Amino acid sequence: MSRGFLFAILTSLIWGLAPAFEKIGLHGRIDPYIGVVIRTIPIVITGFAGLVVMGRIEEMAQVELRNVVFLCIGGLLAGFLGQVAFYSALKNAEASVVVPLAATYPLVALLVSVMFLGEAFTWQRLVGVVFVVSGVILLK
Length: 140
What we know:
- By secondary structure, the chain is mostly helical.
- It folds into two domains: 3-93, no CATH class; 104-140, no CATH class.
- The chain contains six helices and no strands.
- The two termini are 35 Å apart.
């Protein structure tokens, strides 16, 4: 097994576990927006602490502005707006439905990558899209 494959499995386990904690954390009168802000605090603290501990803080100054802008846009879309939408869904519906439905984002990524990044649309990807859409239909 490749290192990338093992990290993908680890990612799946972590991302599969997190919504259970988040659903519990959203119980009661907490607003999803406040939940996202609270969730973000340890991410920022841990991220900067890691850079300091690894001695890599100066690398931040070496990143080109263009890269920073696009990463910030991605962070605002996925890490903030997407997370607020996800928390709103999680607060108002069952996690067993919300998480798989939200996990259909690769369909959007596929369309965007084909239309704007010039990536190829293959038969294998088409079959994958059919499977994902079929899974969403079964959840409804």
